[in-house]
Amino acid sequence: MTPTPHTGDTLTHxxxxxxxxxxxxxxxxxxxxxxxxxxEGAVVFLADVLDEDxxxxxxxxxxxxxxxxxxxxxxxxxxxxxxxxxxxxDKHDRLDxxxxxxxxxxxxNLEDLALDTWNRVLSVNxxxxxxxxxxMIPLLRKGTGSAVVNTSSIxxxxxxxxxxxxxxxxxxxxxxxxxAALELAPDGIRVNALVPGGVSTPINAQEAQGGxxxxxxxxxxxxxxxLAAAVAxxxxxxxxxVTGTELVVDGGFRTR
Length: 256
What we know:
The chain is α/β, with parallel strands linked by helices. The chain has one domain (12-255): Rossmann fold (3-Layer(aba) Sandwich). Helices cover 41% and strands 14% of the residues. It contains seven helices and seven strands; from the N terminus they run E-H-E-H-E-H-E-H-E-H-H-E-H-E. The longest helix has 27 residues, at 115-141.
């Protein structure tokens, strides 16, 4: 049984007035994160390369009374990150929440994996998060209860056949998270990793027995609202003493 998505009417405003930037925010997990954070009172910037989807998602949020802005951002581009920094700085002079959610997947056996593909996956999934942190640290230092969430995956610590580049990028995200947490703790900036298991998306929603579901004790994929709830916790004051760690939301996959 999947959960009923939360609505703004049923949520506390733990994030009232805080400014959040979510990469990969046009659809899927990123859009769910944006909706949840906005529902809890945050001003949200949705960043993506899917401009039509992103603009539509931002408009849907605004139609519900939320403060949402879409911006084009290729996370592998330092110039795009600088433009995002300028926009957030000009509008709010600070950033309280950064969710490094953008990611791509490639499924190719290691022997057949092209170097260009390897580099592209790491440039988006791992270098993108590095650039986001590096660029936004000055604004996070000016924020309130500043927090970063980096999206990893159960394939980071466990590996998976055919996912060499993806698993390597997600394992690297864990190391980046721990190091950033250590370096930024003196500034009061918390950095944690979200480690999802299988997640329902429009692409795989009709394949209930596919992917990692047979190896997941709860017997299903996560709904995106469940991951968004985990992100909302990590960036809220309820997690004020939580940094440098992993929040695993995998239905028991890693316990099997």
